[in-house]
Amino acid sequence: MQFQHTKITRRAALQTAGALGLAGLSGGLLSGCGNDGEGDVNVRLLNLMTDVDTLTLRVDGKTKVSGVAFETGSGYAGTNGGNLSTEVIAEPGSGTVSSATAGYAKDNSYTVVASGTDTDVSVQVLNDGEGRPDDGRIKLRVLNNVARGISYDVYLTASTASIDTATATLRGVGPQAASGFAELASGIWRIRIYPAGDKRELLFDADGVQIDSRQVVTLVLYTLKSSRLVNAYLLHGKDSAGASRVVRNTRSRVRFVNGTDVFGAAGQVRFTVNGQSSSTLDANFSAYQVVAAGTPAIAAVRTTDNFAMATATQSLNPGRDYLIVVYGTAGNYRMVVTQESNLPARGGRASLNVVNATADGVSIDASVDFSLDFPNLEPGKPGRPVDYGLTRPTFSVRFCDAQGASQDFDGGTNFADPDSGGFKDMRSYLLVAMGQPGARRVVLREFT
């Protein structure tokens, strides 16, 4: 497969090999170093893949760099110019995750950026040859290397600047694509990222990002398995003297499920994060809420008397999604916080996960179209997401109590949107088993 060539500016091009998906760079990427003495082209590797130990880069059948860990990058190695095979290999034992032909022009430098997972990889080849700006200025471009991502607007502002009146620094940067270079003042910036054309959903927020005079940088966007939030890596060009580094998102996302014996009407249970109400439950579910990353105190509160039913102090890692389930009966309420692996489904597919939120805390087995894809789920816990075709599936759930007795529940008629005709393209769904003996139920909800 030939890399596609997309013009960025007159002096820099992006080449893409749109196939799978990997992740970012954090420490130790060298900039400004020469090659290893072979050929007239410089090439280096950025590893932004989340599910592999290290990566190796082979160009024209020769290993150029190896042992590149997640969120780190290599120095430059030399190669010849021309249209050359370019392989990214996961170690140990995973084999080639991307293989394509890329064009390397004589006397140029390139960065191969790999991000995503070992089964969903995005690999881009960036030309590092953009010239440096004048004193007091910087050049910045954005590479959107988010696996199954959307288009983004990127804002660089002063720390306290209102986003309502801000103008995007770089607008509409599409999936597996790079923007042109924007030139702006050097200094300390706050970087915020939103879906293109929509300031309602903050997907990335990092303050105090310093970019010094005459630097040429690429802000590489990648995912840490959130379906919406992104992370960023600030990559310096070959002749840029700064240190490349991860720029961490300061936000996480949480969603809530009420599986207790206090359910039914909306608003009977509310969740708080660090004392601030973050969700009003609609029939025992919340949409995702963007909250500050860190280690907040989380509580589920019964609204009728403000009784704290269950609490937890939980680390919420930057750029990640979390599912918070409270379940149980009076005197025995429990809370489970789970970090989710939550990439959106591929095109032509939908993603489904199942969570056990039974009030009496029994285990469950869940089947989709008679396939047992979610066996023996423990109380409060989700399974692992599975992708399905765009059909209207039949669900069945078996509730298994401690004595070995079971109750089968056919959830085929409880589809969340009966008029939709089935799963929607690239949407994510959560099937939740709830209730207690005599009042079991299974509910399907769509999320983004």
Describe what this molecule looks like in 3D.
The protein is mainly beta. The chain folds into 4 domains: 85 residues, Immunoglobulin-like; 120 residues, Immunoglobulin-like (Sandwich), CATH 2.60.40; 91 residues, Carboxypeptidase-like, regulatory domain (Immunoglobulin-like, Sandwich); 103 residues, Immunoglobulin-like, CATH 2.60.40. Helices cover 0% and strands 54% of the residues. The chain is built from no helices and 38 strands. The strands form 8 sheets. Strands 1, 2, 3, 4, 7, 8, 11 and 12 form an 8-stranded mixed β-sheet that branches. Strands 13, 16, 17, 20, 21 and 22 form a 6-stranded mixed β-sheet that branches. β32 and β33 form a beta hairpin. The chain is globular. The N terminus is likely disordered.
Number of strands: 38
Low-confidence stretches: 1-34, 411-419
CATH level 1 class label of the largest domain = Mainly Beta
Describe the biggest sheet?
Answer: 8 strands, mixed
- The overall number of domains is 4
**Helicity level:** under 10%
Q: Which structural class do the helices and strands define?
A: mainly beta
Estimate what percentage of residues fall within beta strands: over 45%
Overall mean pLDDT: 83
The radius of gyration is: 24 Å
Count up the helices: 0
Q: Would you tell me which CATH topology of the largest domain applies? A: Immunoglobulin-like
